[in-house]
Amino acid sequence: MARTRLYRNGVLEKENFPPADVSDFLPDPTATVWLDMCFPTEEDLATISEELGLHKLAVEDAVHEHQRPKVDRYDTHWFLTAYGVRLDPDTGTLAKSEVAAFITERALVTVRKDEHFDIDAVVERWDSAAELAKGGVGFLLHGLLDYIVDGHFEAVQALDEEIETLEDLVFAENVDHRELQRRSLRLRKSLVTLRRVVLPMREVVNSLMRRDHQITTDELVPYFQDVYDHVLRASEWTESLRDMITTLRETQLNLQGNRLNMIMKKVTSWAAIIAVPTAVTGFYGQNVPYPGFNQSWGFWLSVIIMIILSAGLYVLFRRRDWL
Fold first, then answer.
1. Where do transmembrane segments lie in this chain (predicted)?
2. pTM attached to this predicted model
3. Domain co-membership, 226 together with 271
């Protein structure tokens, strides 16, 4: 189902009217129209495309999925592609929803490619900042971008908390290394996905907020600047988390190597201690006469030698932290 809104002089006048009526309001210089469509085909966009003069390539990009975040400029309009994201706190998996937008002088057409993009949240942002509605299409575009970028920022923050939890697990006494590696891999994949979504948004927002493009009014410039600052923070945070998860993985491998070295050191030390009585008993087991041969004191002498040498090795290894 399509959703529509009509603003006149910054005041919401109509909503949920038939999309066919959009063309009736476009000649009015005081009118601003919003049209939202979900799962449209090229045939669904044909009528509005003719009325708004949308470029064929932009229409194709709006219908086909897996576009990169971008903004393209055509003779009569701009075309925007961006992604909303959400993080599953239980699995650490990042899901993304693609949205496209046609930006004209008096109309904003949003095209959602799945139902997971919460357009109601965007509408709520418009309603909460109704005093800016005189900005026309720039006002609608700001609400859309603000919602998308805030979603990126929330996802980065949630991933940061997940990595902090992972850090605590790395240094825990009893570590499930398989589960730790699985969670690390999931977080790394989520960060890679988020990075592909967030980094191009710097260029997108920067292009749209340029005053020579006449998309934003002077009143809206500070608000677009705020969105751009959030984009930069999310981008930098994403990069730092990417380095952090790599460092965390290297730390885990180093700790595993250190623990293995400690185990090998202790096993080797105990083997050296056990080798002493083995050598003494082997010597006294020779079928030749030796000091104390066939005498009871010879037995006790061998026992004393084993105890003294083993105790001496134990003390030596403890002092060198080999045990």
1. 267-285, 297-317
2. 0.79
3. no
Distance between CA 313 and CA 227 in Å, rounded? 68
Q: Which two tokens stand for residue 307?
A: 């105890």
Tokens of 303: 């026992």
What is the number of structural domains in the chain?
A: 2
Nearest Cα to 152, choosing from 102, 74, 101, 95? 95
Is there a single domain that holds both residue 78 and residue 159?
A: yes
Judgement on whether residues 17 and 105 belong to the same structural domain of the protein: yes
**What are the helix (H) ranges across the chain?**
22-25, 42-52, 56-63, 119-128, 137-170, 177-208, 221-284, 296-319
In this structure, the number of other CB atoms found within 10 A of the CB of residue 118 comes to 15
Record the tokens describing residue 286, joined without a space.
């020779």
Contacts (Cβ under 8 Å, ≥6 apart) of 159 = 87, 92, 94, 187, 190, 191, 194, 241
Consecutive 10-residue averages of pLDDT for the chain (323 residues): 90 91 89 93 84 90 89 92 86 87 94 91 94 93 95 91 83 75 85 92 90 81 93 91 82 78 81 80 66 72 82 80 67
Same-domain pairing of 189 and 308: no
Q: Which of 101, 153, 150 is nearest to 128 (CA)?
A: 150
Same domain, 251 and 185: yes
First to last CA, the chain: 72
Query: Is residue 118 within 8 Å of 84, Cβ to Cβ?
Result: yes
Residues spanned by the domain of 297:
263-319
Tokens for 281, please give them. 């008993």
